[in-house]
Amino acid sequence: MKFGGSILEGSRDFIEISDYIMEQNERKVIVISAIKGVTDSLLKLHNLAASGDEVNASRVLSDLEEVHLRICEELGIRCEDVRKDLNKLERIVRGMLYLGESTPRIRDLIASFGENLSGKILAGLLRERGVNSRFLTGGEAGIVTDECYGNANPLIKATRVYLRTRLLPLLEDTVPVVAGFSGVTMLGKITTLGRGGSDLTAVLIGSSLSAREVCLWTDVDGLMTADPKVVRDARVLKNVSYSEAIEMAHFGAKRMNPRFLEPAIPTKTPIRIRNFRNRGCEGTLISESSSGSVVRAIGMKKGVSILTVRGARMVGRPGIAHMFFKVLGESHINVGMISQSISESDISVLLDSKAAERARGLVEARLGTLFREVLIERDCAAVAAIGSGMRGTPGVAARVFRAVAERGINVKMIAQGSSELSISFVVNGSDGEEAVRALHEEFELSKIED
Amino acid sequence: MRVVLMGLGVVGRSFLRLFIEKAPELRSKYGLNPTLVAVADSSSAVQDERGLDPREILELKVREGSLSGHSREVGIRGVELIRSVDAEVLIDVTPSDFKTGEPSLSYIKAALNTGKHVITANKGPFALEMPALIEMFQESGLHLLFSATVGGGVPFVRFIRKCLIGERVLAIKGVLNGTTNYILTRMESGLPFESALREAQELGYAEADPSNDIDGLDSAAKLVILSNLAMETDLTIRDVEITGIRGIELDERILEEGRTLRLIASSDESGARVRPEIIERTDPLAVSGALNAVSFFAESSGRHTLIGKGAGGDETAMALIRDLVELRMRLSEVGACL
What we know:
The complex is a heterodimer.
Chain A: E1 2-3, H1 11-23, E2 30-32, H2 38-50, H3 54-75, H4 80-99, H5 104-111, H6 113-128, E3 133-136, H7 138-141, H8 156-171, E4 175-179, E5 182-184, E6 190-192, H9 197-208, E7 214-218, E8 239-241, H10 242-248, H11 264-267, E9 271-275, E10 284-287, E11 297-310, H12 320-330, E12 338-340, E13 346-352, H13 353-367, E14 373-386, H14 396-406, E15 411-416, E16 422-428, H15 432-442
Chain B: E1 2-6, H1 10-30, E2 35-40, E3 45-47, H2 54-64, E4 73-74, H3 78-84, E5 89-92, H4 104-113, E6 117-120, H5 124-140, E7 144-145, H6 156-163, E8 169-175, H7 178-188, H8 193-202, H9 211-214, H10 217-231, E9 240-242, H11 252-256, E10 259-268, E11 271-280, E12 291-298, E13 302-309, H12 313-331
Parallel strand pairs in B: 1-2, 1-5, 5-6, 6-7, 9-11
Antiparallel strand pairs in B: 2-3, 3-4, 8-10, 8-12, 10-11, 12-13
Helix pairs in contact in B: 1-2, 1-12, 3-4, 4-5, 5-10, 7-8
């Protein structure tokens, strides 16, 4: 089970978590995130140190020390290993300040401290309360990654072998507490797994050890049929399939990086997302199977723009799309939806508002002669109807678009992948909420399934 | 190609002998001109970036039992030696350890971290971490060749990689350990286990400490390697259920019924195991003496059985030479090698 940063604020949370761990009799591995806000502070600390700002770096450093040592004190645990880590962090920061520069590797090293500190606190507390517990960093537990610092990818087979080798013998008599988010390269250098990295750590461990279930404790009830702020009677989904969860992860109150689901798929490891503040709710179970209904959830994303390139010169010329996307890719612009009509005279893409402005400038500058027009439509909202049951079911698109048409909402752009897991479309920003409500009602998502 | 050789036991010495003998042929046929830049046994090490004379090393080792006194002797050993030497390939012929994989595991990782390809005859690291090692070498763009780890006498690994290419192997079943097969064969003529073991030791089939053979660890390690290669499993030795033949008795009635007892290693969709099994004497796996036999059950083409000599020093050394040639071909992209 993994405990997320959103439920780790003060000493009381650690006590509540250790109470819960002690109640569970099954063999288990604990994965822990950094205390709320700590990873952000560490990254800030890194940037300050890299720019040589000693005053502010020292301030952030002492804040971090205070947060962790106060929790140790309140819990009444000996915290030598926590102090040791903090001293190490300070030495690294001093070194950086001295040099006034940094590398992605050092950035990862600093970012990994948050989980190590919270993990050492939890393991220390468990030991204090009579549980045989041991802390391990991601690398010590067996997570081996490539050298893509900041967003490292686990070497999946190596990681599985090492997690099994190191954790299985420990599980006989110990509750291992593993730091989420970090791993090591083959050379033993510390890497971090990017956003949502701790979820990935937990799923890697669960699937490698053939766990009965991976439980991700957070502060939301689970994946929902829609954003409850938009649809008042939105409810928690009890079961979703892996592929549906990948689609849904983009939306919702808790935006997750769907990457964490990948290791679970070949081993069919069930994952449950649960709310630690509302343990009565069973949360959402992500597994192979899902329920039968066609559309399971409605997602929406605001603050997006459509960028359209248009021109007769594009027609029948292979390679145009490549040139267009190359410009976007080289500028690290992430593309949402993509659509091109069969006439080939225009290509539209959905981008984040800020990225769209940049993209327009770049495309005009670099490919202006190729396209007659580069148009931008601002303040849009992308809406997606998600559900694996729509595969091979005729009439889903008709229901989706009739429902929005009946509310007088104009659809600007449409995309559906041929895997038929979702239908996405773009409307005016001001129509977004209404479109979500229309679909939620049309597919009767407020009714309880199962 | 500059070579570091770790280990000068039976296999290591056979390798040096072949290395000397085959040098002209390797050069003329494959353009392979390997230079020994470092050699170490368990207690001493020699190093020369301009190349060591393999004859001198072999003679010294045979005469003195060690390399100390060589003009190029160095103080560093093991991992430190591998790290510090500039070379293209590490040839590892240290003895197999199935509990820790050491020293081989550290040697292989030292080579990996310093950009050296590896050719090994050591089963220990593969038994414990094969899927991890293969993935890490691929990730680093380095080659890891290990045909000498299993069936040096019969090229099982190349059979899987070349002859069974494109096939789906559903199951593997085999007699993978010559020593235990010799013991079981001798027991067919009425010898009790202890006497058969002693005989195997006197003939040099079994080592002074025969545990790895008779407790099934050696068979299990080979099974892991074959299964991972042929069936795309990700096994380690921990996933294999192992029952050895220590103190086993052979019921004469079994023989009268035309059957016999063999230590069978098998892997299929239900799992992997090594255990004594009663099989028909007409079964292709009911080989005699120190022979090895493996059957691959392929989805379309059915059962393929390979039978041959269990690996001794020379067979294993030849497998290492083959791997060296293959490495050279892979590096120069000559020939379509897998």
